[in-house]
Amino acid sequence: MEQHFQIEQLKKFRHDITLFMLTYKFALEEMETKVNILKEEFQTLHDYSPIEHTNSRLKSPESIMNKMFRKSNDMNFSSIKDNIKDIAGLRITCSFISDIYRVSEMLQNQKDLTTLEVKDYIKNPKPNGYRSLHLLIEVPVFLSDRQENVCVEVQIRTIAMDFWASLEHKIFYKYNQSVPERLLMELKNAAESANALDLQMERLHHEIKEIKDANPEDSLAELSQFMINNQQFTIPSSLQKFLTEGR
What we know:
Blueprint: H1 2-46, E1 51-58, H2 61-71, H3 77-83, E2 88-94, H4 97-108, E3 114-120, E4 133-142, E5 147-158, H5 159-174, H6 181-214, H7 220-223, E6 225-228, E7 231-234, H8 237-245
Parallel strand pairs: 2-5
Antiparallel strand pairs: 1-2, 3-4, 4-5, 6-7
């Protein structure tokens, strides 16, 4: 009898934790879809996208449990949801700093998303030199019997910021959190160099765009065609004439 009770309890817990983790998976997929739509829209209409690529991850149940123990929080699903905001994480990598704020604004303007918190580590870098823009975004997830509002942590960085953060993480992992002071200073200097590179590349990007805008090379033939989903479409000549000459 007791064993049967334990099995039933384990079945229920397995069901509950699976559903709990699924909601975060679904929230991540919703965010990735939104980002991919923005990326394709810009790439198709402007031949340039502010979004280079994305990475997503879910914390493991073990990692969640360890974090709850460190915080001395109650161990239940409601408490986990209230106290751990980075169970689902999405990283968006951009080419330029201005793209970071553009992507952030586009996401925050989507009416079905709720921005819970913004931490700007670009304007206010961490003491170690870390730079990134962090958003906590609440995403509605529609299940078969209800709606769940799920928090996703979104980190938006440039390629240079992402490279630095990855290197910093590897060094800390190698030294098991105890990094020599000399390396800490070199890491901070490297962060400053990465930021200087970001600023220089952004300036070059703007200058090249100004030159291109001042010397348009678009031909009527090019403007009469467009691509969607790798399929080429042509604007009918009669419609082109109507648009360029009027009735």
